[in-house]
Write a structure and sequence with these properties.
555 residues, alpha/beta, Rossmann fold, GMP Synthetase, Chain A, domain 3, 3 domains, 14-stranded mixed beta sheet, 17 helices, globular
Length: 555
């Protein structure tokens, strides 16, 4: 169905944009940078009405071109008006966008595209050049944002012209359990996997984010990771696209971010801990205040408390810093605010209790079960562990996805069915609930260090050593066969130390480790100048790569 639908069982996130266009009309939906004029960023603005109209024209064009309901479509556009308009146009047409982070690297990207087998490819010119050179998805329908260089298909101008032959709102009458999109994980701890999102997952995600963080129409968002921005229009938030390389958040220029925040009165910032650390250090050093910002939401990895405290100094007294916990497969699961991370919580973390990730976001149901690397066919009552006992985190909720694309074995390992027909997602993380109902994260299950005497979890151990004032961060890795592994602590110092200083830090860390049960067995310490991190957020430590490096150093 290609006209606006009124069926009660229709579920399509693009309907939210249609509603916002009716309610907000000429209000700004997107401010996007077109370059710099001197020291000032040049912006263009698109209203809700214009964004909705453009997405309708694209949707009509897509359908006429054969990219309609159920057609898997790789989407590789840079942040800007086309990025937003085409995303919603695909939903309106009932097509299935395939989103892959281009920063994961050429080889994994090719693997993901081969696995997704898209039937259409929409991208900027350079994405098409790469597609042609590397043989990505040959023989599919092509749409180019920018000049075509002989590969055929349509450019976005031609697509829009084709769509203008029709009129009115397009809104496919997709069902709640119909496939909506294919989102690939970052692959930070393994091979990227395609997560199958149904239409009900997106609708639930928007509602849960809006409710959990009290997001209201009319707010202004600065999303520094493009996928986080895609549903701003659905929530009625004006998006300010930052002038930065989204694949290098840790390299973002804080001066440009601040310029955008002040110019548009940004109320919400969405970013990775790496970027927020850069922003917080700059505002602290320059004594800059950001009074318009009422909320900061971090994602991608746990945000250090020191970063939170820096940001709090910059924000208004009633502003809050939130760190949601979740994954591509299920988001949000839980969330903790900066004010909840008080001195008591900080002390517990520093003594090896883990990282507090807050309370489950309603209406999620989160449980702790015994750690296992095997598949679990059924979610039974006997699997759940008592409060305070460390185990694997599993969750069922409106955003819990059911399957991975074309990976039945991975699906079998990560999903558990229960007697009520619900799917529980195994987060791949280890943690526990305390007596107040707070969830504590201890580390990735796949990164636990297991020997004859104990099982060590990365986040618990690392937090003990991270208190050292000359240490930027640490990473626990295991060398050897699981069950007989030697724990090794990799250390990234704040500044490159000379031999004497390195010896002193080494001695200090050994002494610190002896003071806590979780770290007492750490005898091997290696210094590393700069940890490998994930491309997407520049925040998750590549412990698998560090383990290989450590093994070579100790061999």
């Amino acid at each position: 169905m290609n006209t606006e639908s009124t069926r009660a069982d229709t579920c399509n996130i693009a309907s939210a944009l249609v509603d916002q266009a009716k309610q907000q009309g000429q209000n700004a939906a997107i401010h996007y940078p077109t370059g710099k004029r001197g020291n000032q960023i040049a912006y263009e603005t698109v209203s809700y009405s214009d964004l909705n109209t453009l997405s309708d024209e694209y949707a009509h064009g897509l359908i006429e071109f054969g990219i309609g309901r159920g057609v898997r479509t790789a989407l590789m556009l840079t942040p800007g008006i086309d990025f937003f308009a085409m995303f919603f146009a695909l939903f309106k047409a009932g097509a299935v966008p395939v989103l892959i982070d281009p920063g994961i690297g050429i080889k994994p990207l090719k693997t993901c595209l081969a696995e997704a087998r898209p039937e259409a490819f929409i991208g900027v010119t350079r994405a098409h050049i790469a597609r042609g050179i590397l043989g990505w998805v040959p023989g599919v329908k092509l749409v180019t944002s920018g000049p075509k260089l002989g590969w055929g298909g349509l450019n976005t101008k031609q697509l829009r012209k084709l769509g203008q032959k029709s009129s009115g709102t397009v809104l496919a009458d997709t069902r709640p359990d119909e496939m909506a999109a294919l989102l690939f994980t970052s692959g930070s701890t393994g091979i990227p996997k395609g997560v199958v999102y149904l239409h009900r997952h997106f609708v639930a995600q928007v509602e849960m984010l809006r409710t959990a963080f009290d997001i209201r129409p009319g707010e202004v968002d600065l999303p520094t990771f493009p996928p986080f921005a895609l549903f701003d229009p659905a929530m009625g938030m004006t998006t300010v696209v930052p002038l930065m390389d989204p694949t290098r958040p840790a390299k973002a220029d804080p001066r440009l971010l601040i310029q955008s925040i002040e110019r548009f009165g940004v109320t919400n910032i969405f970013g990775s801990p790496a970027l927020l650390n850069v922003l917080g250090r700059h505002t602290e050093s320059k004594n800059i205040q950001l009074p318009s910002v009422k909320r900061v939401i971090s994602a991608g990895a746990a945000m250090p408390v020191a970063t939170i405290r820096r940001l709090q100094k910059t924000l208004a007294a009633d502003a809050e810093v939130h760190t949601p916990y979740g994954a591509t497969e299920c988001l949000p699961v839980a969330s903790v605010s900066g004010t909840e991370l008080n001195a008591e919580v900080e002390q517990l973390t520093a003594t090896g209790e883990g990282t507090c990730v807050g309370r489950p976001v309603e209406p999620n149901n989160v449980k702790i079960i015994a750690v296992s690397d095997s598949a679990l066919e059924h979610m039974e009552d006997g699997l759940e562990l008592p409060m305070g006992v460390t185990g694997e985190i599993v969750v069922n909720g409106p955003t819990s996805t059911d399957t991975y694309w074309q990976r039945p074995e991975q699906t079998r390992l990560a999903k558990i069915a229960d007697s009520e027909g619900r799917t529980w997602h195994r987060m791949g993380d280890v943690g526990y609930f305390d007596t107040t109902g707070r969830l504590w994260y201890c580390g990735r299950k796949s990164q636990r260090v297991l020997n004859e005497h104990e099982c060590l979890y990365a986040d618990q151990v690392e937090a003990v050593f991270n208190v050292h004032p000359e240490v930027a961060r640490t990473a626990l890795v295991g060398i050897g066969t699981p069950g007989r592994q030697t724990p090794v602590l990799c250390v990234e110092p704040l500044e490159r130390p000379n031999a004497a200083r390195r010896h002193r830090i080494h001695t200090d860390l050994l002494q610190i480790g002896q003071g806590h049960a979780v770290s007492r067995s750490i005898k091997q310490i290696l210094f590393h100048k700069s940890f490998p991190v994930d491309i997407r957020h520049n925040a998750k430590i590549g412990r698998e790569k560090l383990a290989v490096w450590a093994a070579k150093k100790l061999s």
